[in-house]
Structures are given as structure tokens and as C-alpha cells.
């Protein structure tokens, strides 16, 4: 009698190693080699990842602090009134300027700030800037005052300093310490930079406006940058408006010339010195660093004949028009620094692309800016108050 053939393989669960494919190659509860029964159940017929949403191959700059999006106040944001533009009341001279200081420490302080005339006027300034660029391209001609040209020259100088201060070799991935050298130069030269455009009768304002300016480009000790620093830059511009140095006729150029160049500077700082996102919402935020260019950029696209919110998924449109529209430029930059599916690393922006028109996007972002930036203690605890932005 012929002896049955012995099997030289077992039917136990195969060891899992980094090279073991998933699911295992066996597709039933019988052995594919001999047809005998196996001790482990048949694997799932499909991958645990759906074909629509495969495993992400990007590495987010910072993981979200929580596993679900913070939607608890989204309904409140939707029901809130849309912020309205306001005229900026200029100071009367002579005026006593003061060194600004931090005032916000608690939710009660936030409520006091949000209900104040200072808060409403500052947000009204942001809305007015947004309206000034409505349906306009970046390259469209606009009034460019001598003061704004000097401010633009200052930002170009700051960009040039990055070329002169290269990043050092270090083991840490984020926070290149050469940024501190750049920021120290900024602080040391800040008063001289202000003197380039401040009229003689307003030179005493430096004690108040310099702190907003130096806080507009990130934090040198933490080597980070976020929407709070971006808000400081807007506050610095607001202070100039309060002093009458910039006027309503300058608003379009403030956005299309000055702010666009500011974003260029900040992206260069982020890439060269690997700035950490400051207090980022992680994957559930609009962006790791910015908010205002989405507001201004959505205003640019209002009533555009061809480009809709869903157009951000059209690579041809992004390639051909990102140099003219801030919103598209932001999307291009995000896709450059983050890999993988857009819906995976930027779900909020992906959701916004489903909104029917840019008008709704713009008004929604203004409400979100008020709720997610101006009403958040972790951001506004660093905000400064003086005689121009009163507490």
C-alpha cells in the first residue's frame, strides 16, 4: 500500500511580517497547495481600505489633535450673521501712543473683545479689504500710493534676508535655528524699516506699531507661524489705516500688492526654515498656516464666468490661473507640500469645493474667521491692545 504523501507546510496562521501581503494569498479556508483544511478563517474578500479612499501615503505636517473634526460649533457659525465692512475711524492729533500689551486670558475676555467696537471695526476692516478685491485679478491696475510702494519694498527686503541667511544643517526636521537669526535681524531693524514710510509727525507711533509688525512673521523661540501671526499683520495694516497712513483708496493695492507679497515671504520662510504650524487645527483646518488669503481669494472669484468652487480640482485651471487668484495659489501650494489625496489631507477645503458659488464661500469664510480665529483663546491670548486697537 502506497504511503500517503507528507506535506512539508503547515496550516496554521502564517507569521505576519513586513513583507507579508494583506490580505494573505490564500483565498479560502482550504489550502491552495494541497486542498486540505486550514485552521484560520478565510480572509475578507476585499481590502479594509475602500477603493474610493485608499490608505494615505502623505505625512501630514502635524497630526490632528483629535480623531474627529470639531463640528460642535459649525451650526453656530452657519447661523451667525455675515460680518459687514466698516469705515475706519482715524485718530485725531496730537495722539498719545502706548506700548501694546496682552489682555485676553479666558473665554470671558474673548466675549468682551468680540462684543467691543474695536473687534467689530477690525473685522470690518478685513471685510472691506475683501470687498476691495472682489472680481479683480492680482495683476489688475489699481491705485498704488508712495507709502504702499515703500511697504512693498520693506517686504522685498525681508525676502532678500532669507537669501543672505541660509538654513543650517541640523537633525531636527522642523524649526531650523537660522530662522532666529533672520527674526533677530527683523527686530533689530524694525524701527528703521518703519521710518521708511512714517511721516515725521507720526514717528512716536513706533512704540505701538512695531510690536504688531515684528509678531507678523512667526515666533523666534518656538520657530512657528500660524493664523495669529497672520492676524497681527492685518492688525499692523489696520493701525496704519487708523493713523490715516493708508486710506480706503489703497485697499485694493493692500491686498493685491502688499498682502500677496507678504504671502510670498511667508511661504519662503515656511519652506526654507521649516516653520512649525502654530496651534494648527491639523488636518481639520483650512491650511496649516493661513486663513486670510482664502477670504481675499474667494472674493476675487465672485461672479467669475467659468471658475466655480469645484474648479480647484481642475489641474489646468490651477496651472494657468493660480498666479492671478490667491485662492487657487493656496491650493497649488498645499498640493506642493502635501502628498496624497486632496480629500484626505484637506477635507475642509474639499468640502468647500462643493459649495455652489464663491459668494457663499466668501461669506462662510468670513464667519469662520471670526469664530475660529478671533474668538479662540489659544490664538487671541497673544493679541496686543494699545491706543489704536483698544481693549
Contiguous runs where pLDDT drops below 50 for at least 5 residues: 2-7, 12-29, 43-72
Oligomer: single chain
Largest sheet, strands/sense/barrel: 2 strands, antiparallel
Order of helices and strands: HEHHHHHEHHEHHHHHHHE
Percentage beta strand = under 5%
Overall pLDDT level: 85
Distance between the termini: 101 Å
* Whole-number tally of structural domains: 1
Query: Which structural class do you get from the secondary structure elements?
Result: mainly alpha
Name the features.
single chain; 391 residues; mainly alpha; Four Helix Bundle (Hemerythrin (Met), subunit A); two-stranded antiparallel sheet; two-stranded parallel ribbon; 4 strands; 44% helix; 2% strand; Serine/threonine-protein phosphatase 2A activator; PTPA_sf; rotamase; PTPA_C_lid; protein tyrosine phosphatase activator activity
Task: Describe what this molecule looks like in 3D.
By secondary structure, this protein is mainly alpha-helical. It has one domain (101-378): Phosphotyrosyl phosphate activator, C-terminal lid domain (Four Helix Bundle (Hemerythrin (Met), subunit A)). Helices cover 44% and strands 2% of the residues. It contains 15 helices and four strands. The strands form two sheets. A two-stranded antiparallel sheet has the order 1-4. Strands 2-3 form a two-stranded parallel ribbon. Helix 5 (178-194) runs antiparallel to helix 6 and helix 6 (206-214) runs antiparallel to helix 7 (227-242). It starts with 73 loop residues before the first helix and ends in a 6-residue tail after the last strand. Residues 1-14 have a biased composition (Basic and acidic residues). One of its GO terms (biological process) is mitotic spindle organization. PPIases accelerate the folding of proteins. It catalyzes the cis-trans isomerization of proline imidic peptide bonds in oligopeptides. It comes from Dovyalis caffra. Residues 15-30 have a biased composition (Low complexity).
Amino acid at each position: 500500500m502506497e504511503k500517503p504523501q507528507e506535506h512539508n507546510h503547515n496550516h496554521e496562521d502564517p507569521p505576519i511580517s513586513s513583507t507579508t501581503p494583506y490580505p494573505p494569498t490564500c483565498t479560502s479556508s482550504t489550502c491552495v497547495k494541497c486542498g486540505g483544511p486550514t485552521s484560520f478563517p478565510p480572509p475578507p474578500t476585499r481590502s479594509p481600505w475602500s477603493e474610493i479612499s485608499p490608505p494615505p501615503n502623505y505625512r501630514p505636517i502635524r497630526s490632528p489633535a483629535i480623531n474627529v473634526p470639531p463640528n460642535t460649533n459649525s451650526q453656530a457659525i452657519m447661523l451667525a450673521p455675515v460680518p459687514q465692512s466698516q469705515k475706519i475711524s482715524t485718530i485725531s492729533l496730537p495722539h498719545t501712543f502706548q506700548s501694546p500689551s496682552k489682555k485676553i486670558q479666558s473665554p470671558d475676555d474673548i466675549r468682551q473683545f468680540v462684543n467691543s467696537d474695536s473687534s467689530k471695526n477690525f473685522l470690518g476692516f478685513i471685510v472691506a479689504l475683501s470687498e476691495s478685491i472682489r472680481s479683480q485679478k492680482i495683476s489688475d491696475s489699481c491705485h498704488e500710493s508712495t507709502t504702499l510702494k515703500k511697504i512693498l519694498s520693506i517686504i522685498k527686503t525681508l525676502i532678500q534676508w532669507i537669501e543672505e541667511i541660509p538654513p543650517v544643517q541640523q537633525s531636527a526636521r522642523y524649526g531650523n535655528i537660522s530662522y532666529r537669526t533672520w527674526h533677530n535681524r527683523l527686530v533689530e531693524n524694525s524701527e528703521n524699516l518703519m521710518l521708511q514710510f512714517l511721516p515725521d509727525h507720526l514717528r512716536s507711533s513706533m512704540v505701538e506699531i512695531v510690536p504688531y509688525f515684528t509678531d507678523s512673521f512667526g515666533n523666534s523661540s518656538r520657530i512657528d507661524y500660524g493664523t495669529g501671526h497672520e492676524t497681527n499683520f492685518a492688525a499692523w495694516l489696520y493701525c496704519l489705516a487708523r493713523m490715516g497712513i493708508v486710506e480706503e483708496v489703497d485697499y485694493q493695492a493692500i491686498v493685491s500688492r502688499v498682502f500677496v507679497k507678504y504671502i510670498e515671504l511667508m511661504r519662503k520662510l515656511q519652506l526654507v526654515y521649516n516653520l512649525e504650524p502654530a496651534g494648527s487645527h491639523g488636518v481639520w483646518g483650512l491650511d496649516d498656516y493661513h486663513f486670510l488669503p482664502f477670504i481675499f481669494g474667494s472674493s476675487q472669484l465672485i461672479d467669475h464666468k467659468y471658475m466655480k468652487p469645484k474648479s480647484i480640482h481642475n489641474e489646468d485651471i490651477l496651472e494657468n490661473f493660480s498666479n492671478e487668484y490667491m485662492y487657487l495659489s493656496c491650493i497649488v501650494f498645499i498640493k506642493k507640500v502635501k502628498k496624497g489625496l486632496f480629500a484626505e489631507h484637506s477635507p475642509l477645503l474639499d468640502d468647500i469645493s462643493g459649495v455652489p458659488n464663491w459668494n457663499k464661500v466668501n461669506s462662510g469664510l468670513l464667519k469662520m474667521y471670526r469664530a475660529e480665529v478671533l474668538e479662540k483663546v489659544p490664538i487671541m491670548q497673544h493679541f496686543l491692545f494699545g491706543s489704536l486697537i483698544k481693549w
